[in-house]
Write a structure and sequence with these properties.
The chain has 201 residues and is of the alpha/beta class. It has 5 helices and 9 strands; from the N terminus they run αβββββαβαβαββα. The protein is globular and about 70 Å long. The chain starts with a helix and ends with a helix.
Length: 201
C-alpha cells in the first residue's frame, strides 16, 4: 500500500507540472479574449508612471545629429516643462520603430505638437544618427540613452513607447506600441486632451 502510494505521488506531481502551463495559458487567453470582446485596446496597458512627474534625467545629444542645418540638442527632464510634450522612446535596431517612423514625421508636422525622443541603448553610438538621417528627424531634441537608465526610470520595457507629458512635467498618458494610420487620430486626440487638461488648471 505504502509502495503504491510512493509511486503514485511523483506521477501525480509530474501530471500536475504538465497540466499547469496549459491552465496558465488558457487563463491568459481567456483574459485577452474578454478584453477584445469588450472593445478594450490591448495596447492601452496601465502605467505606474501616469500621474507622476517624469523622472529626472539629463541625456547628451546624439553625436552629429542635425535638423534643418542646426544641431539637434540633447534632452533633460527640465526640457519637459512649459508645454505639452510628446516623448518617443526608439532605437535604430527596433523593427517596429522603423514602421512607426513615418507617423512620427506626420505627428511632428501637426501644429502645436512638441515631439522629442530618447534613443535607447544603441550598440553603436553612430547608429541613432544613421537611422534618423535615413528616415528623417521629427524630434526637436533627442537624448542618447546609452545604458538605458532613463528609459528604465520611465518604466519602458519595450520600444517604441510614447509618453504624453503635461506642461508641469507630469506624465499624462502612455502609448504602448506603434503609431499607425489607423490609430493616429485617436493618439492625436489624447495629446490634445492633455493640453486641454493643462489649460483648465
Amino acid at each position: 500500500m505504502s509502495e503504491t502510494h510512493d509511486i503514485a505521488a511523483p506521477q501525480a506531481r509530474r501530471s500536475l507540472l504538465l497540466i499547469l502551463p496549459v491552465l496558465v495559458f488558457a487563463a491568459l487567453a481567456g483574459v485577452m479574449f474578454l478584453r477584445l470582446r469588450s472593445g478594450a485596446d490591448p495596447s492601452a496597458l496601465p502605467s505606474a508612471m501616469i500621474g507622476k512627474p517624469a523622472p529626472s534625467f539629463d541625456l547628451p545629444a546624439v553625436p552629429g545629429l542635425a535638423k534643418d542645418g542646426a544641431p539637434v540638442p540633447g534632452l533633460s527632464s527640465a526640457d519637459l516643462k512649459g508645454g505639452v510634450t510628446v516623448l518617443n522612446v526608439f532605437a535604430s535596431w527596433c523593427a517596429p520603430c522603423q514602421v512607426e517612423h513615418p507617423m512620427l514625421m506626420r505627428l511632428a508636422r501637426e501644429p502645436g505638437i512638441r515631439l522629442v525622443g530618447i534613443d535607447y541603448k544603441e550598440p553603436d553610438p553612430a547608429a541613432g544618427k544613421k537611422f534618423l538621417d535615413r528616415h528623417g528627424v521629427p524630434f526637436a531634441a533627442v537624448g542618447a540613452d546609452a545604458d538605458g537608465r532613463a528609459a528604465i526610470d520611465f518604466g519602458v520595457y519595450g520600444v517604441p513607447e510614447t509618453f504624453i507629458i503635461g506642461p508641469d512635467g507630469v506624465i499624462r498618458d502612455k502609448i504602448v506600441g506603434i503609431l499607425t494610420p489607423e490609430n493616429f487620430s485617436s493618439v492625436l486626440a489624447r495629446i490634445r486632451a492633455a493640453g486641454k487638461v493643462a489649460e483648465a488648471r
